[in-house]
Amino acid sequence: MKNLFIAIEGTDGSGKSTQAALLAEKLQQEGHKVHLTFEPTNGHIGRLLRSILKGQISVDQKAIAALFLADRLDHILNEQDGLVKKMNEGYTVISDRYYFSSFAYHSVYMNMDWVIECNQMCREILKPDVTVFVDVPPEVCMGRIIANREVPELYETGEILKKVRNNYMEAFNVLASEEVVKIVDGNQPVEVVAGYVRDACHM
Ligand code: TYD
Prior knowledge:
The chain has 203 residues and is α/β, with parallel strands linked by helices. It has a single domain, classed as Rossmann fold. It is built from 10 helices and 5 strands, in the order E-H-E-H-H-H-E-H-H-H-E-H-H-E-H. It has helices at 16-29, 44-53, 61-77, 83-88, 99-106, 112-118, 120-125, 138-148, 158-174, 190-200; strands at 5-9, 34-38, 92-96, 130-135, 181-185. Thymidine-5'-diphosphate (TYD) is lined by residues 12, 17, 39-40, 53, 68, 97, 101-102, 105, 153, 155.
């Protein structure tokens, strides 16, 4: 069976990282070779982005968008454990966030067309077989963030999360004919959502 590239998306506090991990576990149990990965990455550019997200460094939003693009290209292409290499080795790759995160988050500050255009090369090199969006109302996400974090990160305000969710929906619409997207109800018990995510992956 063909190995798949699966992107898991959602707003901050949606539980998508938990869902990505549960999906990886499930697919492994079913006998697939799985590589679970995430953006921002743990590489040099990803670590710089984490400092920006924590508010330790202040950088213009357009430059942040460009850094996420650079981080993504390195994620795709780097020779140690890049996504292309892992796909060629037969792994089913699950990425906790991919280019739809850029479309949703950076369009809060600039034109979505520009963000999509910038990511064209990523879309040409490696398009997900499926993008699963874990949909949770922004108010619920914000409640979880407040309960779990001492200091919220850059985009973790109720107002921004609302815009981010709307932008996700807009991006799914704009790219409906070019991308496979499954939206699952993430406002359910963890195991129930895990079942929806597994079913969305068709493999
Ligand atoms: P997140 O998955 O929430 O990481 P963690 O669980 O470690 O906090 O992602 C970190 C933030 O990065 C999140 O607010 C969304 C943002 N982000 C972008 O703004 N653009 C992007 O392209 C990506 C991948 C993430």
